[in-house]
Here is the input.
Amino acid sequence: MRRVAVIGVGTTKFGKHDRTSGELFAEAATEAIRDADIAPSAIQALYYGNVTGGEGEKQLHMGPLSATLLGIPTVPTTRFENACATSHAAFRHAAMEIAAGISDVVMVGGAERVLNIPTDEATEYFAYCSDASWEQTVGLTFPGVFALVARAHMDKHGTTEEQMAHVAVKNHRHGSLNPKAQFRKEITVDMVLKSAYVADPLKLLDCCPFTDGGAAVILAAEEVARKRPRAVWMLASQAASDTMFVHEKRDLSRVMATERAAAAAYRQAGKTPADVDVVELHDCFTIAEIVATEGLGFFEPGSGGAAAEKGWTALGGKIPVNPSGGLKAKGHPIGATGAAQIAEITTQLRGEAGARQVEGARTGLTHTLGGNTATVLVSLFGRG
Amino acid sequence: MVEPVLTLKHFFEEARAGRLSGIRCGKCQELAIPPKEFCPTCQGRDWTPVPLAGSGNITSFTVIRVAPRGRGTEAPYAVAVVRLDEGVSLLGRIVDIPFDSLRAELPVRFRPLITGEQTALGFGPA
Here is the structure.
């Protein structure tokens, strides 16, 4: 198997846009092409991620559409959908195409546009990522899924709403340092605690926003990448699944797919959690970040809330988590999120993250979760 | 042709009449909610339908205040994971229980929630 590197990254500003998701992806892809300093025609395949385009934009067959908008209409392309883990799953497959020796340069990314439709309509489409027979019929929403996780974590470990609020405050502080973040204003624990309940015990400021945006990364084989000093190497990329059904989860306070994917990724890379300098993980809700920091092995089960409260996951802390602002503040265009996380870790490991730089970061981790905690991707990256 | 296991359609037709059905693995005795081809525990395929009594206890719950399109008039509403006495769990809408009395371990009892052609799972006071 050949080694795989990231040689170019690009993202749009996250927030509200008046362009289609295809256009948003093309903008991010153009930035990635310039960052990699390659000709568009050097791209041999495009792995494209999007979730709700069929519903919100009445648009399917987005792979060739995106390639057409980018100006490389003859490139082989496929669209991926793995709920919120969509473009991280696409990344793993793109990397496998290079590792297998099929292509030398591959683009992967995605885009989402949902702020063109009302909130209740977007909430309905996102709920399509839960089960139609068991979950949509009782009106379960995604905040509802993570509210069930939060309640279980609170009952089992004594995690508090205030500890969850600290995650939101920290990620907004990080987002204030990221020019492309959807939210660049700081918030307080009090503001989180006083925001309206969306699904008890989760409040509005525990939840990531709906976001329009695109992200793209360019992957290359070792033969191409080794001449490039800014190349960042993929050390591991692993996927794991768990039962799709909330009613079949063995322990709602844990995300088993995170634990399985992380164990496999550390083994593939020959690393341990202690080797990781910077993390972009899936904080779709504040409790999701707490559970992920435990599942990825940074903190003992049940101690993720206290770690957040003590500032251990902030820039300058023991293990900086979501320096980009995370899904919470940077924003969560669900088809783009995995690629955007990889773009941030690449930027961090290059030492190009400016005010939000984790000093001396040499090993980074990305974690993306899809649906009812049913899909998780974990990848590790390093310099040299 | 493979021999059929309990289908979703059958499960919800039974639920509509007030009856819950599980399936038990003849090889390892695992109890599961249908439909399922192979037993996730032992990989056997020897299921027998078993009736579930419909009583259980809440393991986790939430009150949903921001609803999907079409459910705005229903909100706020409570949803809970309920561990049935037989050991399997189901997700259901909570009915006729005040939000402020919801807690883990609260005993509840199944009841079907019928809206036109659709049947959903509900749980009310034990």
Observations:
- The two ends of chain B are 42 Å apart (CA to CA).
- Chain B has a mean pLDDT of 96.
- The first helix of chain B runs from residue 8 to 16.
